[in-house]
Amino acid sequence: MNAIRPEKIESTETETVDNNLAAVTEVEAGIRDFVRNDIAYLRRPAAGSAEPALDPSAEATVTNVNSLIQRVAGTSLAEIENLISELESLRDLLHAEGQRVQREISGYAQLSQAAMKSTRMISDNVAQWKRAADGLRNS
Predict the structure, then answer these.
(1) What domain of life does the UniProt record list for this protein's source (predicted)?
(2) What is the structure's pLDDT at 1?
(3) Does the pTM exceed 0.85?
(4) 3-class secondary structure, 44
(5) Whole-angstrom distance, CA of residue 33 vs CA of residue 123
(6) What is the DSSP string of 58-119?
(7) How many CB atoms are located within 10 Å of the residue 39 CB?
């Protein structure tokens, strides 16, 4: 059986993160190029008018860009919200476990104190018996 070395796991995780970052960077670059090249003319005001008039193809392009951004952002937002809820539940779990551990430690401390008292009482009684036995031998 082949054992998986930790270095191999870290290398694989690093490669996965690098691949994900490369994909995100590629998508961002594509969006930037699209905005610069394909819809840049929409930002220029038409001559003689306060507001640029959009032709139907320009409106479709804007709608497509908006939907693309919403899909990309929507997925990211959903993942962030899921992560936040998982972290909140993890925080609650850790808080509950911390309280449980504190109760356990308190119980062990009380048990230890009771054991010390019992040991001290037994030791005192044995010492008294020893003195009594020594007193009987000497008399």
Answers:
(1) Bacteria
(2) 47
(3) no
(4) coil
(5) 86
(6) HHHHHHHHHHHHHHHHHHHHHHHHHHHHHHHHHHHHHHHHHHHHHHHHHHHHHHHHHHHHHH
(7) 14
